[in-house]
Protein: LysM domain-containing protein
Organism: Cupriavidus metallidurans
Amino acid sequence: MAVQAADLSVSPVQLAEADRTAQQGIPVADLSPNAPSQYTVRSGDTLWGISGQYLRQPWRWPQLWGMNRQQVHNPHLIYPGQILYLVQRDGRAYLSTNPPGGASGDVRLSPRIRGNGGDGEAIQSIASSDIEPFLIRPLVVDQGTVDTSARIVALPDARVYMGRGDMAYARGIAPADASLGSDWQAFRPASPVLDPVTGRVIGFEAAYEGSVRVTRGPEGPNAVTTVQATQSLQEIGPGSLLLPQPQRELIRYVPHAPDGEVEGRVAAVYGGVRYGGAKQIVVLNIGANAGLEPGHVLALSSDGGHVADPTDGNRAIELPDDRYGLAYVYRVFPGVAYALVTDASNVMKVGDIASTPR
């Protein structure tokens, strides 16, 4: 399967911020107490991990790591073997690939793109092993997807389920999409995912069943396509829905806070459980329609709620929200987004708040 790099475009806001911080840096007080003065990037490192080494607030990475955009096409690519230098001057901190005291004497944030090799050598934003199954499989699908997806309608010899190597017949695959050898995911919509605020159904958790490959294009008046199972994790049979297999994307979005105020809720924890913790995948009830984009880091908080104050005649008072962790958004759709919980000091649950970190 081909591996494609994610869209590495830089927003105008990020460009402006990088230009500004290339001159200003950040306050030294915002550095992590153990921030290294020099660090050699290693294979297996991630942007998030390096950010955490240097910053108390890892999502402020763009403020520490600027770029000279006249020379650098993409400021987010960092490669194993590169040496990062932390420069502190006049109470401000800068990160550079140029050692302090260079010939020019002007310390600028200027990451460099390697002349040899491709972008595939660059480190990723977060560990792909943490989200590997969710890069190419549907986690939540909306009603429109359920209603319009292609589906398996029959198996040869009146069999009920198919295993790896077995054939089946499907309908709903358009001729333009039914090229020989094209791969499709088989899934069934499982339990509904509810918006914890409104209670409405925002999607259905997709139970991934396996993958099939087109072996013969649509034929006959009913446009029946023949497929063969290439992977079978659960029982695939008539009624199983099909979606095109997307290409796996390498996650290289720079971790950063949203430009404005964003607030949503945890609508689901992967696996159908209500509670979770670090390294788990969550579904948020907001997406691109709320301004979310891949690379956004959100703070996770439990709702403080209301209690009666016994010292004031049991008057109802609102408690402050209790922030306990961070979530890295890596896949965004119009009304939902997937995020990896990078750290959590408390138990995470459905209904918790996901908002712009402060």
Summary: Residues 1-8, 67-74, 103-117 have pLDDT under 50 and may be disordered. The longest strand covers residues 201-219.
